[in-house]
User: Fold this.
Amino acid sequence: QKEVEQDPGPLSVPEGAIVSLNCTYSNSAFQYFMWYRQYSRKGPELLMYTYSSGNKEDGRFTAQVDKSSKYISLFIRDSQPSDSATYLCAMKDDRGSTLGRLYFGRGTQLTVWP
Amino acid sequence: NAGVTQTPKFRVLKTGQSMTLLCAQDMNHEYMYWYRQDPGMGLRLIHYSVGEGTTAKGEVPDGYNVSRLKKQNFLLGLESAAPSQTSVYFCASRSNRGREEDTQYFGPGTRLTVL
Assistant:
């Protein structure tokens, strides 16, 4: 079993829809949770960062972490065609020995059509 | 400020050939990483470095070697390429300021095909 599970999709929604992207994980030591966005033929870029449990909002994006369920989510409100990309969840634990190693999900491919 | 750059962008090799991928960063980051990305597999860590002159194995190191002779450069070598190494390779770098929220910055990737 991979440490981080993510449904690869693809997910296709109309413009303006609310999008929900999710990951589950098995390692209870994970404390830091990230969402990266990757446009086609580009490198991933950090979209959201959350420490431990709770919600974080940034414009149209909201990240949620539920450590009791080992489940994280990214919500996109009023989705736009420019949001079409692959979204990767990533996480890391708080042990210094891992030197910031990230554990990635497989990524979910999202298409928002006009 | 170019961030993280990778050379070359594309390459086609024949089985058994060798090549070196170059990653360069101008952010004075201590940590550097090499990943490969395959369809349905996500990003997998090949090797990483915590500073000039140091390297360590990641999740899938077999068939690859790395060197970090200068702080700003991280080289990934394939001594004898195999079709299984056909992939997109990403380099990333990160600060070691001790803030856990420090993110990894990724390069644009190198698309490698081994025939």
Notes: The interface with chain B takes residues 4, 6, 8, 31-32, 34, 41-46, 49, 51, 88, 92, 94, 99-102, 104-107 of chain A (CB under 8 Å). The longest strand of chain A covers residues 30-38. Residues 8 and 17 of chain A are 19 Å apart (CA to CA). The mean pLDDT of chain A is 90.
